[in-house]
Task: inverse folding
């Protein structure tokens, strides 16, 4: 049994993933998976018949995630070394993903428009994208304040990139959560 705190200052995987409404059998892309902080929660949510593609550009983080996936027995997780800022950089087929999630990664992207285009390519029409990112720099944590992407700017970029805004969701005191549908 997972104990979920009722209030948290930072993102908590089980709480955040509950907003994604994932189902058994869904195919999910964890875009910018890092060391896989959210990967186990995503893996549990889609079950044995689902798949989680953990997409990461940093090989050393992907290697650590591979160890974690093996240690936690997550057979439905597939590791992908990829570059979201390059057209076709995920090497996933067009429209294969039911749900894309990007958590604490958007602020790091230099070419946000190309990354959004790549996300739109791999997420099926009617599929979902959930963005969680820093709303501020906090006490030396998170991005430098000049790298923070304001919620309104993120929403504008995704809407211009072929996504339809559906709703906000709570993502902790120092983050925002945005849900989009792929048109």
Result:
């Amino acid at each position: 049994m997972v104990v979920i705190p009722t209030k948290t200052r930072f993102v908590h995987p089980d709480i955040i993933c509950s907003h994604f409404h994932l189902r058994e059998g869904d195919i999910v892309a964890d875009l910018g998976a890092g060391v896989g902080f959210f990967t186990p929660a995503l893996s549990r949510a889609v079950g044995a018949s689902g798949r989680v593609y953990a997409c990461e550009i940093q090989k050393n983080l992907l290697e650590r995630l591979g160890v974690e996936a093996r240690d936690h027995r997550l057979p439905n997780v597939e590791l992908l070394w990829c570059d979201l800022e390059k057209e076709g950089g995920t090497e996933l087929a067009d429209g294969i993903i039911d749900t894309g999630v990007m958590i604490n990664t958007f602020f790091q992207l230099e070419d946000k428009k190309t990354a959004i285009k790549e996300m739109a390519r791999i997420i099926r029409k009617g599929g979902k994208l959930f963005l969680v990112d820093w709303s501020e720099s906090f006490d030396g944590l998170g991005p430098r304040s000049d790298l923070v992407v304001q919620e309104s700017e993120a929403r504008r970029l995704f809407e211009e990139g072929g996504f339809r805004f559906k709703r906000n969701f709570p993502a902790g005191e120092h983050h925002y959560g945005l849900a989009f549908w792929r048109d």
In short: Confidence is low (pLDDT under 50) at residues 1-8. The beta strands are 27-31, 51-56, 77-81, 97-103, 123-134, 163-169, 175-182. Helices lie at 13-18, 39-46, 59-71, 112-122, 151-160.
